[in-house]
Amino acid sequence: MNSRTELSSAGPSGLGKIVIVGAGPAGLLLALMLGQQGIPVTVLEAWGRLDERLRATQYGTPATRVFRKAGVLDEIRAAGIERFPSISWRKVDPEQTRITGIDLTVTKDEPDRTTVLPLNLLLKILLEHCKRQSSIEVKFEHKVIEVGQNESKAWADAVMPSNERKRFEGDYVIGCDGASSTVRQQLFGRNWPGITWDHSLLVQNVFYDGFTEHGWSGGNYMIDPNHWGLIAERGKGGLWRVTYGDIGGLTHEQYLKRREEHFEAMFPGHPKPDQYRVEQTDQFRIHNRCVEKMRVGRILLAADAAHVCNPFGGYGLMVGVLDIDGLTDCLIGMHQRKVGDEILDKYAEIRREKFLNYVEPRSIKNMNRLRAQNPDSALRDDKFLQILAHLEKDPEEAKAFLLKFSSIEHDFKQYYII
Protein backbone atom coordinates (compact mmCIF):
# COMPACT_ATOMS: atom_id res chain seq x y z
CA MET A 1 0.00 0.00 0.00
CA ASN A 2 1.34 3.40 -0.96
CA SER A 3 1.38 6.09 1.70
CA ARG A 4 1.74 9.84 1.15
CA THR A 5 1.31 12.86 3.40
CA GLU A 6 -0.30 16.20 2.59
CA LEU A 7 1.26 18.82 4.86
CA SER A 8 -0.46 21.67 6.64
CA SER A 9 -0.23 25.00 4.79
CA ALA A 10 0.21 27.17 7.87
CA GLY A 11 -0.40 30.85 7.24
CA PRO A 12 1.87 33.58 8.66
CA SER A 13 -0.97 35.49 10.33
CA GLY A 14 -3.52 32.95 11.47
CA LEU A 15 -4.72 29.39 11.16
CA GLY A 16 -3.26 26.94 8.73
CA LYS A 17 -5.31 24.21 7.11
CA ILE A 18 -8.45 22.79 8.70
CA VAL A 19 -9.29 19.17 7.85
CA ILE A 20 -13.02 18.38 7.90
CA VAL A 21 -14.26 14.80 7.85
CA GLY A 22 -17.65 14.48 6.16
CA ALA A 23 -19.29 16.34 3.25
CA GLY A 24 -22.76 16.48 4.76
CA PRO A 25 -24.53 19.72 5.64
CA ALA A 26 -22.30 20.38 8.66
CA GLY A 27 -19.03 19.69 6.88
CA LEU A 28 -19.83 21.68 3.75
CA LEU A 29 -21.29 24.61 5.69
CA LEU A 30 -18.23 24.77 7.93
CA ALA A 31 -15.90 24.56 4.92
CA LEU A 32 -17.79 27.32 3.13
CA MET A 33 -17.85 29.73 6.04
CA LEU A 34 -14.16 29.18 6.80
CA GLY A 35 -13.15 29.30 3.14
CA GLN A 36 -14.91 32.64 2.71
CA GLN A 37 -12.45 34.02 5.28
CA GLY A 38 -9.45 32.66 3.38
CA ILE A 39 -8.81 29.77 5.77
CA PRO A 40 -7.54 26.70 3.82
CA VAL A 41 -9.91 23.74 4.17
CA THR A 42 -9.86 20.14 2.98
CA VAL A 43 -13.07 18.11 3.22
CA LEU A 44 -12.79 14.31 3.14
CA GLU A 45 -15.89 12.31 2.21
CA ALA A 46 -16.11 8.51 2.13
CA TRP A 47 -18.96 8.38 -0.38
CA GLY A 48 -18.51 9.09 -4.05
CA ARG A 49 -21.48 11.47 -4.07
CA LEU A 50 -23.62 13.67 -1.88
CA ASP A 51 -26.10 12.02 0.48
CA GLU A 52 -29.46 11.55 -1.26
CA ARG A 53 -31.38 9.98 1.62
CA LEU A 54 -34.59 11.56 2.89
CA ARG A 55 -33.44 13.71 5.75
CA ALA A 56 -34.12 17.27 6.91
CA THR A 57 -36.33 19.59 4.86
CA GLN A 58 -37.55 22.49 7.01
CA TYR A 59 -35.29 25.17 8.45
CA GLY A 60 -36.51 27.57 11.11
CA THR A 61 -35.25 31.03 11.96
CA PRO A 62 -32.05 30.08 13.86
CA ALA A 63 -30.85 28.04 10.88
CA THR A 64 -31.93 30.55 8.23
CA ARG A 65 -29.96 33.26 10.06
CA VAL A 66 -26.83 31.15 9.60
CA PHE A 67 -27.62 30.36 5.94
CA ARG A 68 -28.00 34.10 5.29
CA LYS A 69 -24.66 34.72 7.00
CA ALA A 70 -23.09 32.09 4.72
CA GLY A 71 -24.58 33.73 1.62
CA VAL A 72 -26.73 30.78 0.54
CA LEU A 73 -30.21 31.62 1.85
CA ASP A 74 -31.49 33.25 -1.34
CA GLU A 75 -30.58 30.20 -3.42
CA ILE A 76 -32.15 27.86 -0.88
CA ARG A 77 -35.38 29.86 -1.06
CA ALA A 78 -35.33 29.96 -4.87
CA ALA A 79 -34.93 26.18 -5.06
CA GLY A 80 -37.50 25.44 -2.35
CA ILE A 81 -41.14 26.27 -1.82
CA GLU A 82 -42.29 29.64 -0.59
CA ARG A 83 -45.84 28.45 0.10
CA PHE A 84 -45.57 27.00 3.58
CA PRO A 85 -48.30 28.87 5.43
CA SER A 86 -48.73 26.97 8.69
CA ILE A 87 -47.88 24.08 10.97
CA SER A 88 -50.83 22.18 12.42
CA TRP A 89 -51.34 19.47 15.02
CA ARG A 90 -54.11 17.01 14.13
CA LYS A 91 -55.89 13.95 15.44
CA VAL A 92 -55.88 10.72 13.44
CA ASP A 93 -59.65 10.40 13.27
CA PRO A 94 -62.15 10.19 10.36
CA GLU A 95 -61.76 13.94 9.69
CA GLN A 96 -58.09 14.40 10.74
CA THR A 97 -59.42 17.08 13.08
CA ARG A 98 -57.09 20.05 13.50
CA ILE A 99 -56.32 20.74 17.18
CA THR A 100 -54.26 23.92 16.84
CA GLY A 101 -51.24 25.28 15.00
CA ILE A 102 -49.16 28.30 14.16
CA ASP A 103 -49.54 30.70 11.24
CA LEU A 104 -46.18 31.14 9.46
CA THR A 105 -47.48 33.84 7.13
CA VAL A 106 -47.01 36.39 9.92
CA THR A 107 -43.26 36.28 9.03
CA LYS A 108 -43.70 36.30 5.22
CA ASP A 109 -41.84 39.62 4.87
CA GLU A 110 -39.04 38.76 7.30
CA PRO A 111 -35.60 37.84 5.85
CA ASP A 112 -35.06 35.01 8.34
CA ARG A 113 -38.45 33.30 8.01
CA THR A 114 -38.78 29.52 7.85
CA THR A 115 -37.80 27.98 4.52
CA VAL A 116 -38.27 24.50 3.04
CA LEU A 117 -35.92 22.53 0.80
CA PRO A 118 -35.01 18.81 0.91
CA LEU A 119 -31.53 18.32 2.31
CA ASN A 120 -30.10 16.65 -0.81
CA LEU A 121 -30.84 19.83 -2.78
CA LEU A 122 -29.40 22.04 -0.04
CA LEU A 123 -26.21 19.97 -0.17
CA LYS A 124 -25.84 20.68 -3.89
CA ILE A 125 -26.06 24.41 -3.21
CA LEU A 126 -23.45 24.23 -0.46
CA LEU A 127 -21.11 22.16 -2.63
CA GLU A 128 -21.38 24.57 -5.57
CA HIS A 129 -20.51 27.48 -3.27
CA CYS A 130 -17.54 25.55 -1.88
CA LYS A 131 -16.26 24.94 -5.42
CA ARG A 132 -16.15 28.70 -5.99
CA GLN A 133 -13.71 29.18 -3.12
CA SER A 134 -10.08 28.61 -4.04
CA SER A 135 -9.22 27.88 -0.41
CA ILE A 136 -11.57 24.84 -0.28
CA GLU A 137 -11.01 21.38 -1.69
CA VAL A 138 -13.63 18.63 -1.36
CA LYS A 139 -12.36 15.08 -1.90
CA PHE A 140 -14.95 12.35 -2.45
CA GLU A 141 -14.09 8.64 -2.13
CA HIS A 142 -11.65 9.46 0.66
CA LYS A 143 -12.72 7.22 3.54
CA VAL A 144 -11.13 8.33 6.80
CA ILE A 145 -10.02 5.32 8.81
CA GLU A 146 -7.85 6.93 11.48
CA VAL A 147 -7.23 10.30 13.10
CA GLY A 148 -4.41 11.45 15.33
CA GLN A 149 -2.61 14.46 16.74
CA ASN A 150 0.40 15.82 18.55
CA GLU A 151 1.20 19.17 20.12
CA SER A 152 1.53 21.02 16.81
CA LYS A 153 -0.89 19.38 14.37
CA ALA A 154 -3.70 16.90 13.80
CA TRP A 155 -4.24 14.50 10.93
CA ALA A 156 -6.70 12.19 9.22
CA ASP A 157 -5.66 9.10 7.29
CA ALA A 158 -7.93 8.32 4.34
CA VAL A 159 -8.17 5.36 1.98
CA MET A 160 -9.19 5.74 -1.66
CA PRO A 161 -10.74 3.10 -3.96
CA SER A 162 -7.24 2.22 -5.20
CA ASN A 163 -6.38 1.26 -1.58
CA GLU A 164 -3.84 4.06 -1.49
CA ARG A 165 -3.62 5.54 1.99
CA LYS A 166 -3.00 9.26 2.31
CA ARG A 167 -2.51 11.47 5.36
CA PHE A 168 -4.05 14.95 5.54
CA GLU A 169 -2.57 17.25 8.17
CA GLY A 170 -3.86 20.51 9.56
CA ASP A 171 -4.05 22.67 12.63
CA TYR A 172 -7.30 20.93 13.57
CA VAL A 173 -9.43 18.00 12.44
CA ILE A 174 -13.19 18.49 12.68
CA GLY A 175 -15.45 15.43 12.70
CA CYS A 176 -18.65 16.25 10.78
CA ASP A 177 -19.16 12.67 9.62
CA GLY A 178 -22.61 12.00 11.02
CA ALA A 179 -24.12 9.57 13.50
CA SER A 180 -21.76 6.73 12.53
CA SER A 181 -18.77 9.07 12.87
CA THR A 182 -15.35 7.47 12.46
CA VAL A 183 -13.79 10.47 14.19
CA ARG A 184 -15.98 10.01 17.26
CA GLN A 185 -15.25 6.28 17.36
CA GLN A 186 -11.53 6.99 17.13
CA LEU A 187 -11.81 9.26 20.16
CA PHE A 188 -14.27 7.32 22.32
CA GLY A 189 -14.73 3.84 20.86
CA ARG A 190 -18.30 2.66 21.40
CA ASN A 191 -18.90 5.06 24.28
CA TRP A 192 -21.73 7.33 23.13
CA PRO A 193 -24.09 7.96 26.05
CA GLY A 194 -27.83 8.01 25.43
CA ILE A 195 -30.66 5.83 24.25
CA THR A 196 -31.92 4.17 21.10
CA TRP A 197 -35.72 4.09 20.92
CA ASP A 198 -37.61 0.90 20.17
CA HIS A 199 -39.13 2.43 17.06
CA SER A 200 -38.29 2.80 13.41
CA LEU A 201 -38.98 5.88 11.33
CA LEU A 202 -40.32 5.42 7.83
CA VAL A 203 -39.67 8.44 5.64
CA GLN A 204 -41.05 8.71 2.12
CA ASN A 205 -41.66 11.18 -0.69
CA VAL A 206 -45.30 10.98 -1.74
CA PHE A 207 -47.54 12.50 -4.41
CA TYR A 208 -51.22 12.52 -3.38
CA ASP A 209 -53.74 14.99 -4.77
CA GLY A 210 -55.97 14.49 -1.74
CA PHE A 211 -53.81 16.69 0.46
CA THR A 212 -54.62 19.77 -1.59
CA GLU A 213 -58.20 18.69 -2.28
CA HIS A 214 -58.86 18.48 1.45
CA GLY A 215 -57.28 21.88 2.14
CA TRP A 216 -54.04 20.69 3.69
CA SER A 217 -50.89 22.79 3.44
CA GLY A 218 -47.63 23.35 5.28
CA GLY A 219 -46.74 20.88 8.01
CA ASN A 220 -49.17 18.57 9.80
CA TYR A 221 -48.16 16.73 12.97
CA MET A 222 -50.34 13.66 13.57
CA ILE A 223 -51.15 12.75 17.19
CA ASP A 224 -52.06 9.10 17.64
CA PRO A 225 -50.56 6.16 19.58
CA ASN A 226 -50.48 3.97 16.46
CA HIS A 227 -50.14 6.40 13.56
CA TRP A 228 -47.94 9.26 14.75
CA GLY A 229 -45.73 11.40 12.59
CA LEU A 230 -45.46 14.41 10.28
CA ILE A 231 -46.97 15.04 6.86
CA ALA A 232 -45.65 18.16 5.14
CA GLU A 233 -45.25 19.92 1.83
CA ARG A 234 -41.67 19.47 0.78
CA GLY A 235 -41.21 20.39 -2.87
CA LYS A 236 -42.57 21.86 -6.04
CA GLY A 237 -45.09 19.96 -8.15
CA GLY A 238 -47.10 18.51 -5.29
CA LEU A 239 -44.32 16.66 -3.42
CA TRP A 240 -45.06 15.79 0.21
CA ARG A 241 -42.83 14.18 2.83
CA VAL A 242 -44.51 11.60 5.06
CA THR A 243 -42.66 10.55 8.22
CA TYR A 244 -44.16 8.20 10.78
CA GLY A 245 -43.04 5.93 13.57
CA ASP A 246 -43.63 2.19 13.69
CA ILE A 247 -42.75 -0.63 16.06
CA GLY A 248 -39.18 -1.87 16.09
CA GLY A 249 -37.72 -5.17 14.99
CA LEU A 250 -39.46 -5.78 11.66
CA THR A 251 -37.92 -6.44 8.27
CA HIS A 252 -37.99 -3.75 5.63
CA GLU A 253 -40.56 -5.76 3.67
CA GLN A 254 -42.80 -6.00 6.73
CA TYR A 255 -42.60 -2.24 7.24
CA LEU A 256 -43.60 -1.59 3.63
CA LYS A 257 -46.55 -3.97 3.97
CA ARG A 258 -47.76 -2.04 7.03
CA ARG A 259 -47.42 1.30 5.23
CA GLU A 260 -50.79 1.02 3.49
CA GLU A 261 -52.54 0.91 6.87
CA HIS A 262 -50.62 3.93 8.14
CA PHE A 263 -51.31 6.00 5.03
CA GLU A 264 -55.00 5.13 4.98
CA ALA A 265 -55.37 6.18 8.61
CA MET A 266 -53.25 9.35 8.41
CA PHE A 267 -54.12 10.81 4.99
CA PRO A 268 -57.21 12.95 4.40
CA GLY A 269 -59.73 10.98 2.37
CA HIS A 270 -58.25 7.69 3.66
CA PRO A 271 -56.90 6.62 0.26
CA LYS A 272 -56.04 3.19 -1.10
CA PRO A 273 -52.58 2.55 -2.64
CA ASP A 274 -53.71 3.26 -6.21
CA GLN A 275 -54.57 6.84 -5.19
CA TYR A 276 -51.04 7.97 -4.27
CA ARG A 277 -47.51 7.49 -5.58
CA VAL A 278 -44.49 6.81 -3.37
CA GLU A 279 -41.23 7.84 -5.04
CA GLN A 280 -38.63 7.12 -2.37
CA THR A 281 -38.55 5.43 1.03
CA ASP A 282 -35.86 5.40 3.72
CA GLN A 283 -35.87 3.81 7.14
CA PHE A 284 -34.03 5.02 10.25
CA ARG A 285 -33.63 4.14 13.90
CA ILE A 286 -34.35 6.85 16.47
CA HIS A 287 -31.56 7.88 18.85
CA ASN A 288 -30.95 10.49 21.54
CA ARG A 289 -27.23 10.51 22.27
CA CYS A 290 -24.43 12.95 23.10
CA VAL A 291 -20.67 12.58 23.53
CA GLU A 292 -18.96 13.34 26.83
CA LYS A 293 -16.59 15.80 25.11
CA MET A 294 -16.79 17.69 21.82
CA ARG A 295 -13.10 18.57 21.90
CA VAL A 296 -10.08 16.37 22.48
CA GLY A 297 -7.00 18.50 21.85
CA ARG A 298 -6.83 19.38 18.17
CA ILE A 299 -9.75 17.13 17.21
CA LEU A 300 -13.31 18.43 17.52
CA LEU A 301 -16.79 17.09 16.83
CA ALA A 302 -19.85 18.88 15.52
CA ALA A 303 -23.48 18.16 14.62
CA ASP A 304 -24.54 14.49 14.35
CA ALA A 305 -21.00 13.27 14.96
CA ALA A 306 -21.38 14.66 18.49
CA HIS A 307 -25.08 14.35 19.24
CA VAL A 308 -28.30 13.05 17.68
CA CYS A 309 -31.99 13.33 18.50
CA ASN A 310 -35.30 12.36 16.97
CA PRO A 311 -36.36 14.67 14.09
CA PHE A 312 -39.67 15.97 15.43
CA GLY A 313 -39.45 19.71 15.87
CA GLY A 314 -36.57 20.10 13.45
CA TYR A 315 -33.86 20.14 16.10
CA GLY A 316 -31.50 17.66 14.44
CA LEU A 317 -30.18 19.77 11.59
CA MET A 318 -30.86 23.07 13.34
CA VAL A 319 -28.59 22.30 16.27
CA GLY A 320 -25.94 21.05 13.85
CA VAL A 321 -26.10 24.32 11.91
CA LEU A 322 -25.75 26.25 15.16
CA ASP A 323 -22.76 24.10 16.14
CA ILE A 324 -21.14 25.05 12.84
CA ASP A 325 -21.94 28.72 13.24
CA GLY A 326 -20.39 28.76 16.69
CA LEU A 327 -17.32 26.75 15.68
CA THR A 328 -16.83 28.98 12.64
CA ASP A 329 -16.82 32.12 14.78
CA CYS A 330 -14.33 30.50 17.16
CA LEU A 331 -11.92 29.49 14.38
CA ILE A 332 -12.25 32.81 12.55
CA GLY A 333 -11.54 34.64 15.81
CA MET A 334 -8.39 32.56 16.23
CA HIS A 335 -7.41 33.16 12.59
CA GLN A 336 -7.77 36.92 13.07
CA ARG A 337 -5.78 36.84 16.32
CA LYS A 338 -8.78 38.06 18.32
CA VAL A 339 -8.83 35.09 20.68
CA GLY A 340 -6.70 32.10 21.64
CA ASP A 341 -7.54 28.44 21.27
CA GLU A 342 -9.19 28.41 24.69
CA ILE A 343 -12.32 29.54 22.85
CA LEU A 344 -12.56 26.02 21.44
CA ASP A 345 -13.12 24.76 24.99
CA LYS A 346 -16.02 27.19 25.26
CA TYR A 347 -17.41 25.89 21.98
CA ALA A 348 -17.17 22.28 23.17
CA GLU A 349 -18.70 22.96 26.58
CA ILE A 350 -21.46 25.37 25.57
CA ARG A 351 -22.70 23.52 22.49
CA ARG A 352 -22.81 20.27 24.46
CA GLU A 353 -24.74 21.98 27.26
CA LYS A 354 -27.20 23.43 24.73
CA PHE A 355 -27.94 19.94 23.49
CA LEU A 356 -28.29 18.32 26.88
CA ASN A 357 -30.23 21.12 28.58
CA TYR A 358 -32.53 22.19 25.76
CA VAL A 359 -32.44 20.13 22.58
CA GLU A 360 -32.63 16.65 24.05
CA PRO A 361 -35.54 17.20 26.47
CA ARG A 362 -37.48 19.26 23.94
CA SER A 363 -37.04 16.74 21.15
CA ILE A 364 -38.26 13.94 23.43
CA LYS A 365 -41.28 16.02 24.43
CA ASN A 366 -42.01 16.70 20.77
CA MET A 367 -41.99 13.00 19.92
CA ASN A 368 -44.02 12.03 22.97
CA ARG A 369 -46.54 14.76 22.13
CA LEU A 370 -47.36 12.74 19.00
CA ARG A 371 -47.19 9.16 20.23
CA ALA A 372 -47.81 9.14 23.98
CA GLN A 373 -50.80 11.31 24.75
CA ASN A 374 -54.53 11.09 24.17
CA PRO A 375 -55.36 13.20 21.10
CA ASP A 376 -58.83 13.92 22.44
CA SER A 377 -57.43 15.63 25.55
CA ALA A 378 -54.18 16.95 24.06
CA LEU A 379 -55.20 20.60 24.00
CA ARG A 380 -56.41 20.43 27.59
CA ASP A 381 -53.30 18.61 28.87
CA ASP A 382 -50.44 19.99 26.75
CA LYS A 383 -49.12 23.44 27.72
CA PHE A 384 -47.26 23.86 24.43
CA LEU A 385 -50.41 23.30 22.40
CA GLN A 386 -52.18 25.78 24.68
CA ILE A 387 -49.50 28.37 23.87
CA LEU A 388 -50.03 27.79 20.15
CA ALA A 389 -53.79 28.15 20.57
CA HIS A 390 -53.19 31.51 22.26
CA LEU A 391 -50.78 32.65 19.53
CA GLU A 392 -53.39 31.90 16.86
CA LYS A 393 -55.38 34.81 18.30
CA ASP A 394 -52.46 37.29 18.27
CA PRO A 395 -50.48 37.57 15.00
CA GLU A 396 -47.91 40.02 16.39
CA GLU A 397 -47.16 37.79 19.35
CA ALA A 398 -46.92 34.79 17.01
CA LYS A 399 -44.43 36.69 14.85
CA ALA A 400 -42.27 37.53 17.86
CA PHE A 401 -42.42 33.89 18.96
CA LEU A 402 -41.18 32.66 15.57
CA LEU A 403 -38.33 35.19 15.25
CA LYS A 404 -37.06 35.31 18.82
CA PHE A 405 -33.44 34.55 19.72
CA SER A 406 -33.55 30.87 20.65
CA SER A 407 -32.13 29.39 23.83
CA ILE A 408 -30.12 26.97 21.67
CA GLU A 409 -28.23 29.82 19.97
CA HIS A 410 -25.03 31.34 21.37
CA ASP A 411 -22.80 34.22 20.26
CA PHE A 412 -19.16 33.20 20.53
CA LYS A 413 -17.92 36.52 19.21
CA GLN A 414 -18.52 37.97 22.67
CA TYR A 415 -15.28 36.25 23.74
CA TYR A 416 -13.15 38.08 21.16
CA ILE A 417 -10.55 40.46 22.49
CA ILE A 418 -10.87 43.39 20.08
UniProtKB/TrEMBL annotation:
Gene3D superfamilies per record: 3.30.70.2450, FAD/NAD(P)-binding domain (3.50.50.60)
Requisite cofactors: FAD
UniProt keywords, alphabetically: FAD, Flavoprotein, Oxidoreductase
Coiled-coil regions listed: none
InterPro entries (alphabetical): FAD-bd, FAD/NAD-bd_sf, RIFMO-like
Residue ranges of domain FAD-binding in the record: 18-353
GO MF entries: FAD binding; oxidoreductase activity, acting on paired donors, with incorporation or reduction of molecular oxygen, NAD(P)H as one donor, and incorporation of one atom of oxygen
A Pfam family assignment: FAD_binding_3
SUPFAM superfamilies, per the entry: FAD/NAD(P)-binding domain
Protein name, entry field: FAD/NAD(P)-binding domain-containing protein
Organism: Glonium stellatum
